[in-house]
Write a structure and sequence with these properties.
Layout lengths: L11 H14 L2 H25 L4 H28 L5 H17 L5 H29 L13
Helix pairs in contact: 1-3, 1-5, 2-3, 2-5, 3-4, 4-5
């Protein structure tokens, strides 16, 4: 005799968790962080031409790829945070890479502006990632006003 099975997407805990993340992502703070992530990514993608990475073609390509990735992550967070919350650590990884990439990708970097640009955008990406993770943690936990369900100890 076959037993009926349900799909994982219909599991009550998963549905409830997604609803809490969607509610957390709808706050003005979350929307602002998502927008800043997109803008940071777009700036990073075009920064080689704004700042002038003369002679650093590999670093320019690195910034273009990382910038587009960061912008796409920001768009994913803005449109479906309840499904993409698990990737909130990725902007921090991109930010850490941006901080070291002038030396790793370009070798000897003799221009201050390329280093300063990548360090500032990398630090911003790390901060945005930490803030997005904090919002997700608040959305993922029950508050005293939320009531019901299991509570973390």
């Amino acid at each position: 005799m076959a037993t009926p099975t349900s799909r994982i997407e219909e599991h009550p805990d998963l549905v409830e968790m997604r609803a809490r993340y969607a509610q957390a992502a709808a706050t003005p703070t979350a929307r602002g962080l998502e927008a800043l992530t997109v803008l940071s990514g777009l700036y990073l993608a075009i920064s080689p031409w704004i700042v002038g990475f003369d002679g650093f073609t590999r670093l320019a390509v690195n910034n273009l790829v990382c910038g587009m990735t960061l912008a796409l992550l920001g768009l994913a967070f803005a449109t479906a945070y309840e499904r993409t919350y698990g990737m909130s650590w990725v902007p921090a990884a991109i930010g850490a890479w941006l901080i070291v990439s002038p030396w790793v990708v370009a070798g000897e970097v003799d221009t201050t502006r390329t280093v300063v640009n990548n360090v500032i955008v990398g630090a911003l990406a790390i901060l945005l990632s930490l803030a997005l993770l904090a919002i997700g943690r608040r959305g993922g936990h029950r508050t005293a006003q939320g009531g019901g369900g299991r509570r973390r100890r």
